[in-house]
């Protein structure tokens, strides 16, 4: 179960918006997090609280395949990203780095809403609106990788000797 406050974004949020290229000079994920969504809101990282959730429209994470986009979101403390659709490479980078991508029709979810995501029931409750919508969460090997905390931890767990 994931519960948090919503930060709402529109369609085609690309990796240059999520983490602009000028801030890719570090490999420290906490430093990257300071510039998360800097292309839209320079103060975003100061407003987010641990456990918040990003909700977006179509094609979230399009653009370049920079893994730092996922890392900046994850290390800011965002639990999950809910979107109508994801760019394929962003989706895989999210799974591999332990950030939960959820597919849903996000039209009824608004900025500041409090939502609760049940990954097993594949439901999102919009608590302040007393409304429930269906969603699609990662399954199979993707879910195993997420449960392990990401691909590296999955391999360490699976192949420890």
Q: What descriptors fit this protein?
A:
161 residues; alpha/beta; 7-stranded mixed barrel; 7 helices; globular
Briefly, what is this?
The protein has helices at residues 15-18, 29-33, 44-47, 68-74, 88-96, 140-148, 151-158, and strands at residues 2-8, 53-56, 80-83, 100-104, 114-118, 123-126, 131-136. With 161 residues, the protein is α/β, with parallel strands linked by helices. Strand 5 and strand 6 (123-126) form a beta hairpin.
- Counting DSSP E segments of at least 2 residues, the number of strands comes to 7
- Side by side, the strands of the main sheet go 1-2-3-4-7-6-5
Mean pLDDT: 96
Which runs of at least 5 residues are low in confidence (pLDDT < 50)?
Answer: none
Query: What is the rounded Rg?
Result: 15 Å
List the helices and strands in order.
EHHHEHEHEEEEHH
Which structural class do you get from the secondary structure elements? Answer: alpha/beta
Q: What fraction of residues sit in β-strands?
A: 15-25%
* Tally of helical segments: 7
**Overall outline:** globular
Q: Share of helix among residues?
A: 25-40%
Straight-line distance between termini: 32 Å
* Main beta-sheet strand count, sense and barrel state: 7 strands, mixed, barrel
